[in-house]
């Protein structure tokens, strides 16, 4: 992407960030670039990587990890409006990627779970993504990979907490 340097760093002679604002500028730019590059990678990759759009992938990964959930729980976890999740779940159901059962706690609603087909697709996409990351990070040490994984988990947790109004930490 022209005009956004991938290695823009404001550093002192010792290699430290010049100040917090400079660090925040780099973080903001790099997160935006990472999101853009992730989408470009998905679109340009072979079929397994493109089998699911971002919304479907995130919902199916959540259901894979958490098990069957009602729509409200999915919406809350993913910081989405319930009507948005209802539409997305409807599309996943039509595609045979989730199954619905009546909610035993609320007869008006339903509980959704990833279907066998949904689990197979999310596994295929996850495997394809891990292969890409393995190639991209081939020159990184195991420790650098673990550090990145930990920092990304922390960033995701704190962003989720911020969106839910709890604040980071």
Please characterize this protein's 3D structure.
The chain is about 65% helix and about 10% strand. With about 170 residues, it is mainly α. Among the domains are: about 1-45, no CATH class; about 55-120, Winged helix-like DNA-binding domain superfamily/Winged helix DNA-binding domain (Arc Repressor Mutant, subunit A), CATH 1.10.10. A three-stranded antiparallel sheet has the order 1-3-2. A hairpin with a 2-residue loop joins strand 2 (about 100-105) and strand 3. Helix 3 (about 55-65) packs across helix 6 and helix 4 packs across helix 5 (about 80-95). The longest helix is centred in the N-terminal third of the chain and has 25 residues, at about 20-45. The model is unreliable at about 1-5 (pLDDT under 50).
């Amino acid at each position: 992407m022209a005009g956004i340097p991938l290695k823009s760093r404001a550093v002192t002679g010792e290699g430290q960030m010049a100040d917090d604002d400079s660090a925040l500028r780099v973080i903001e730019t790099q997160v935006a670039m990472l999101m853009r590059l992730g989408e470009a990678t998905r679109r340009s990759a072979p079929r397994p990587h493109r089998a699911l759009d971002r919304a479907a992938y995130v919902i199916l990964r959540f259901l894979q990890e958490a098990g069957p959930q009602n729509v409200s729980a999915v919406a809350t976890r993913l910081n989405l409006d319930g009507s948005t999740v209802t539409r997305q779940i409807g599309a996943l159901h039509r595609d045979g990627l989730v199954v619905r059962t009546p909610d035993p706690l609320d007869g008006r609603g339903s509980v959704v779970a990833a279907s066998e087909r949904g689990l197979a697709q999310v596994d295929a996409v996850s495997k394809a993504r891990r292969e890409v990351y393995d190639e991209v990070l081939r020159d990184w040490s195991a420790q650098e990979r673990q550090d990145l994984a930990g920092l990304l988990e922390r960033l995701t947790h704190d962003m989720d907490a911020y969106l839910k109004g709890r604040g980071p930490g």
